[in-house]
Amino acid sequence: MSSVRASGGDKRRMILDAAVVVFARRGFHACRVSDIADEANVAYGLVYHYFRSKDEILDTLFLDRWNILLDVISRTDEQQIPLREKLHALTSYIIDSYRHNPDLTKVIIVEVTRAANSFGRTHRGKIRELYALIADMVAKAQADGAIKREVTPAFAALAIYGAIEQVLTGWIFEMLPHGEAEFDMTPARIVDTICGGIEAHPATAPASARAV
Predict the structure, then answer these.
(1) Per-domain residue ranges for the chain?
(2) Residue 197's pLDDT band (boundaries 50, 70, 90)?
(3) Is 103 exposed, middle or buried (0-12, 13-18, 19+ CB in 10 A)?
(4) Which of 49, 114, 203, 205 could anchor a disulfide with 209, C-beta 3.0 to 4.6 Å?
(5) Integer Cα distance of 82 and 22 in angstroms
(6) Domain 7-51 in CATH: superfamily?
(7) Once rounded to an integer, what is the mean pLDDT over residues 132-136?
(8) Which of 62, 11, 64, 60 is nearest to 40 (CA)?
(9) So what's the pLDDT on residue 208?
(10) Which of 9-13, 117-121, 180-184 tops mean pLDDT?
(11) What fold is seen in the domain 58-198?
């Protein structure tokens, strides 16, 4: 056993990493702080030295990851590249995050962004920041004539991130096949589906739609 003791920052990180495992395996509401302590192999009281509750642990996990994602979107949008390339870069980053830490992605989606009655409601403003940043990307492309005027930036942002999150959900709950090949191909598939539509060729609007 190493004689070097873990620093305060290392212990805090150990607790957060353990919480990810426990939340992903048992669910946030079903686990206790003692479960996190056991997983981290630390004393029960040490968890409370760094965090007031398991709620604060989940808040920390979400905000740490979400703020990084918001920064990635902002920096991507600063690049002078077409919208398709920006969306591919964003989607690739999110897919790679899942590839390297699927448990954390599961916790964020299941326990926060899709938890409308608890943490999702608490962090609604922070979640909306993501949609606003993507909508701004779309609005700039729309101003350049790259996106049709009939699609509002806000609707496009919901469709774009919604598609990404739904694919991740499919992997989390094993509704979709996943592995290295899927991880590599998915960003292009999502961007092509959203930007190009799912029809092989442009279709004429139904008579009922033209009559409206």
Answers:
(1) 7-51, 58-198
(2) confident
(3) middle
(4) 205
(5) 41
(6) Homeodomain-like (1.10.10.60)
(7) 97
(8) 11
(9) 47
(10) 180-184
(11) Tetracycline Repressor; domain 2 (1.10.357)
